[in-house]
């Protein structure tokens, strides 16, 4: 009788977490399958959308072409390249901004080429890491023999190995910081595999931000725990430099990673190991600082501007406000803060593509993104800052950094929204003075998902021990994926006569 009762209790305890036991037993295969699904998903959606989307893809592509030919920034070298205009005239679809017909595009129209050649590329002076990498990928495609539309899609398909590396780093990072927490590492990989951010279907420098940041964070985390490997020090420095040199909007990531370096240096000093680790630390600082200094010096010499951003700001028609004027902003009203936070959350999840002049989104999916983010992130914060947590102090410090990176990005975008008068710019504008492009904070993606999963774990444990957090994660993924697919199908994206499948 005792044995029967024990067996019954064991079955009851495990019924609620059967899915977790199954996944844990087959963990390696689950991760491999998730990676394959994610890569296939990036391929099909990248192939489905024609060129050039509304998220400045033509500007990013021109910067790729320039860097493929050894471009260096110069004041008179920011107009669209002649090679780019050939692609723009032959391969542009009118479907993003309005209706279309097969006669909408007129190949080899000299007027179209001439119109592009007198336009300044506002991404021409942007940080170079993504464009150099994509430029090399572009040249490789040419060597393989790709031309025309196939060469364009070849550049987009660079996002496939980028996503693969991001998934691998996210999985191993979560396993490293919390080895016993299966739900964390698998939950993050599941969400990341199906994350519907459409910038991953585009030529855009933002796609590298999450990979670079989590790489730098991972290496520095290892140095906090195991500081014996010399090669990790320059690698950490290069990861920090590359995060900033991918996108100027990654200043918050640069701040957080630099703050971690200060704490690492303090750790050496407190442990009286300065003499032993000072040379390594200096190598790391040099690896971080030298690329940034070289790029800044080159900009200053050729452009008279350390970051190269003044010309872009000038072309967009923005002007900086005085310190006093910054505080007269609608973000300080209840409606303003709700508008800013909700729109930022929506675009962080699903991106900013429009189709026939309308957002490629559904109200129910957007509501799900906002509501679950609000609930699970708050719950995750409670979990992280709870005094009764089971994590060690060191692991809690790493979780604090995830919170810090989110707060840093949200604060940064809010400050940018306050800082400028946007003149006649379409977005942001004086009528809508908010930076709500979630792709600008993609460096914090893995950190966001870690807090999100922790929130799901925390709430499911509070409600009932029989609620499997993985079930909630799968429900979120299922609905977001269903909404993304139905939105694309309903709008006829896959049947576009200009996409990869119709070349």
SSE blueprint:
Layout: H1 2-15, H2 18-25, H3 27-48, H4 57-68, H5 82-91, H6 110-117, H7 129-144, H8 148-156, H9 159-177, H10 182-193, H11 209-225, H12 232-244, H13 251-270, H14 274-303, H15 309-316, E1 319-320, H16 323-326, H17 334-350, E2 354-355, E3 358-359, H18 363-385, H19 393-419, E4 420-421, H20 445-463, H21 469-490
Antiparallel strand pairs: 1-4, 2-3
Question: What does this molecule look like?
Answer:
The chain is mainly α and 503 residues long. It has one domain. Helix content is 66%, strand content 2%. It contains 21 helices and four strands. It has helices spanning 2-15, 18-25, 27-48, 57-68, 82-91, 110-117, 129-144, 148-156, 159-177, 182-193, 209-225, 232-244, 251-270, 274-303, 309-316, 323-326, 334-350, 363-385, 393-419, 445-463, 469-490, and strands at 319-320, 354-355, 358-359, 420-421. A two-stranded antiparallel ribbon has the order 1-4. The chain has a two-stranded antiparallel sheet with strand order 2-3. β2 and β3 (358-359) form a beta hairpin. α3 packs antiparallel against α9 and α10 crosses α20 (445-463). The relative contact order is 0.13. The model is unreliable at 1-15 and 100-107 (pLDDT under 50).
């Amino acid at each position: 009788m005792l044995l029967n009762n024990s067996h019954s209790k064991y079955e009851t305890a495990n019924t609620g977490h059967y899915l977790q036991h199954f996944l844990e037993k087959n963990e390696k295969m689950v991760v491999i399958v998730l990676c394959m699904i994610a890569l296939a998903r990036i391929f099909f959606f990248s192939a489905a959308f024609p060129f050039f989307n509304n998220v400045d893809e033509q500007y990013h592509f021109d910067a790729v072409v320039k860097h493929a030919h050894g471009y260096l920034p110069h004041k008179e070298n920011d107009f669209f390249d002649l090679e780019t205009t050939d692609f723009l005239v032959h391969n542009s679809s009118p479907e993003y901004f309005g209706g279309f017909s097969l006669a909408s595009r007129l190949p080899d129209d000299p007027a179209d080429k001439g119109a592009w050649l007198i336009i300044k590329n506002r991404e021409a002076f942007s940080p170079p890491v993504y464009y150099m990498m994509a430029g090399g990928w572009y040249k490789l495609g040419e060597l393989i023999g790709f031309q025309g539309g196939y060469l364009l899609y070849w550049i987009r398909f660079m996002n496939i190995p980028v996503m693969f590396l991001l998934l691998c780093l996210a999985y191993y990072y979560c396993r490293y910081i919390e080895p016993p927490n299966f739900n964390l590492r698998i939950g993050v990989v599941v969400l990341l595999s199906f994350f519907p951010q459409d910038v991953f279907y585009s030529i855009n420098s933002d796609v590298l931000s999450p990979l670079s940041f989590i790489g730098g964070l991972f290496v520095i985390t290892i140095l906090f725990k195991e500081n014996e490997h010399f090669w990790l020090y320059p690698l950490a420095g290069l990861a920090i430099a590359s995060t900033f040199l991918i996108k100027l909007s990654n200043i918050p990531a640069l701040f957080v990673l630099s703050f971690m370096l200060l704490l690492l240096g303090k750790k050496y000093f407190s442990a009286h190991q300065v003499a032993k680790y000072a040379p390594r630390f200096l190598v790391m600082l040099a690896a971080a600082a030298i690329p940034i200094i070289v790029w800044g010096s080159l900009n200053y010499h050729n452009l008279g501007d350390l970051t190269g951003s003044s010309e872009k700001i000038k072309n967009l028609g923005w002007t900086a406000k005085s310190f006093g004027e910054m505080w007269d902003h609608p973000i300080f009203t209840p409606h303003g803060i709700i508008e800013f936070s909700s729109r930022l959350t929506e675009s962080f999840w699903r991106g900013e593509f429009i189709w026939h002049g309308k957002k490629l989104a559904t109200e129910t999916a957007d509501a799900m993104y906002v509501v679950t983010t609000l609930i699970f992130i708050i719950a995750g914060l409670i979990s992280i800052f709870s005094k009764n947590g089971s994590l060690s102090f060191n692991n809690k410090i790493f979780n604090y950094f995830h919170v810090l990176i989110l707060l840093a990005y949200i604060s940064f975008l809010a400050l940018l929204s306050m800082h400028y008068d946007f003149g006649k710019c379409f977005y942001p504008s004086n009528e809508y003075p908010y930076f709500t492009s979630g792709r600008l904070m993609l460096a914090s993606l893995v950190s966001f998902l870690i807090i999100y999963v922790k929130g799901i774990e925390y709430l499911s444990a509070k409600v009932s021990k029989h609620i499997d957090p993985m079930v909630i994660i799968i429900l979120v993924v299922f609905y977001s994926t269903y909404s993304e697919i139905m939105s694309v199908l309903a709008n006829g994206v896959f049947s576009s006569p200009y996409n990869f499948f119709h070349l």
